[in-house]
């Protein structure tokens, strides 16, 4: 059983109730998409939803930060707020000006040519990580100039995928797999899917 499952054993997840008026509005929305659309139309509902899950967020935060893996405690971070999302989206618009903050489903984003080209050229997407690396092209309209000395920047690569160690149940040390070509073949999620 995973550590997170152990940490959440016996924890009941239930949101607090909103006022009757907001609960009635909330009950009419069946899917997450409908809930988001309704909350975007009603600032009261949006604030009510944020308030009613606050206690459960704090409980999950508290339970999770009690967990330790290999003598390293777990850490929780607060979710992005509207201001953070707006600032991030302004940066994304420099990559693809056709994007719309209210249209960000995977299906819609997969059709955005400039964004997909950026992801293919500058990013590495994995199950457990998302990495971006500057291109170091002086004519690039997206990347700002590299500040590092050139010889250091040229030796920076994407982080490798985990590779099992040959001598025990752990993974190879970072220094032995960095700068080598790796795949997600040994990703625990993918291994578990193959077993099922």
Report on this structure.
The protein is built from 11 helices and 4 strands, in the order H-H-H-H-H-E-E-H-H-H-E-E-H-H-H. By secondary structure, the protein is mainly α. It has a domain of 56 residues. The strands form 2 sheets. Strands 1-2 form a two-stranded antiparallel sheet. Helix 3 packs across helix 4. The mean pLDDT is 88.
Total beta-strand segments: 4
Please give the share of residues in helix. Answer: 40-55%
The side-by-side strand order for the widest beta sheet comes to 1-2
| Assembly state of the chains shown | single chain
Task: Determine the mean pLDDT.
Answer: 88
Beta-strand portion reads 5-15%
Largest sheet: 2 strands, antiparallel
Q: Mind telling me the C-alpha Rg?
A: 22 Å
Anisotropy-based shape: globular
| Cα-to-Cα separation, first versus last residue | 16 Å
Short recap of the structure:
The protein is mainly alpha-helical and 196 residues long. Helix content is 45%, strand content 5%. Helix 3 (32-41) crosses helix 4.
What are the key terms here?
mainly alpha; two-stranded antiparallel ribbon; 45% helix; 196 residues; 4 strands
Itemize the secondary structure elements and their pairings.
Blueprint: H1 3-7, H2 20-27, H3 32-41, H4 43-52, H5 54-65, E1 68-69, E2 72-73, H6 82-95, H7 106-109, H8 113-122, E3 123-125, E4 130-132, H9 150-153, H10 174-177, H11 188-195
Antiparallel strand pairs: 1-2, 3-4
Helix pairs in contact: 3-4
């Amino acid at each position: 059983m995973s550590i997170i499952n152990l940490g959440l054993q016996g924890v009941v997840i239930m949101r607090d109730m909103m006022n009757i008026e907001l609960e009635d509005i909330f009950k009419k929305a069946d899917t997450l998409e409908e809930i988001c659309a309704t909350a975007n139309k009603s600032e009261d509902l949006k604030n009510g939803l944020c308030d009613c899950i606050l206690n459960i967020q704090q409980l999950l935060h508290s339970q999770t930060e009690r967990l330790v893996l290999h003598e390293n405690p777990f850490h929780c971070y607060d979710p992005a707020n509207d201001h953070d999302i707006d600032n991030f989206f302004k940066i994304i618009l420099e990559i693809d000006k056709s994007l719309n903050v209210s249209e960000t489903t995977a299906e819609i984003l997969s059709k955005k040519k400039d964004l997909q080209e950026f992801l293919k050229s500058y990013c590495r997407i994995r199950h457990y990580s998302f990495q971006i690396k500057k291109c170091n092209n002086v004519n690039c309209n997206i990347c700002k100039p590299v500040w590092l000395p050139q010889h250091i920047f040229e030796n920076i690569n994407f982080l490798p995928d985990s590779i099992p160690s040959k001598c025990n149940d752990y993974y190879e040390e970072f220094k032995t797999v960095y700068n080598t070509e790796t795949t997600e073949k040994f990703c625990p999620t993918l291994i578990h899917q193959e077993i099922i």
